[in-house]
Amino acid sequence: MSGEESFSRRLMIAATMLLFKSHRRPGVRGWELKHRLGKNYMRVIDALNSRLKQLGLEIKTVFEEGEENNLDRARFYVVLSHPLTMSDLVAAGWRIDEVAALSITLSILSSRGGKAPLRDVLEVLETKFPKWKAETYLERAIRRGYIERLEDDVLTIGWRTKVEVEQKALLKAVLEAREEKEIRSD
Fold it and tell me: What pTM did the predictor assign?
């Protein structure tokens, strides 16, 4: 097998590993890629990423807390390279009020360092939604992986938020909306 055929084969293996779920959570750890693709696996990932960008996708690397720069422990995901519009979200089965509840929850968690008690989040959500809706939206977010619930009823940012949501952009949008509301009320 020539060098180019070998590289194409490794590119195909990398795409298969990243696009097809083989664990409880999607994505692939760096050590798994290294094991299957060889020590220069990042070269293969970079080549695959440039091909995926032509399709509106990209490979995102998420590092474990305290393990920044450790590619072997990082998890690699394929995500959209551009944010979804509201009509895209609705077409994907999301309700507008559900997106709003998730945004509120994530902004609370982000503003508190990534953790907040469940009752505090529900208290804020219940100012905008009936209690049963607020609880339903939180449960869906937990099931989908955007939020995690710890044993002591503390909510944290979930793996999917770390992968799919630009948290800084979300906080900026929330702050801009708040400033706009304050200007209107003056």
Answer: 0.74
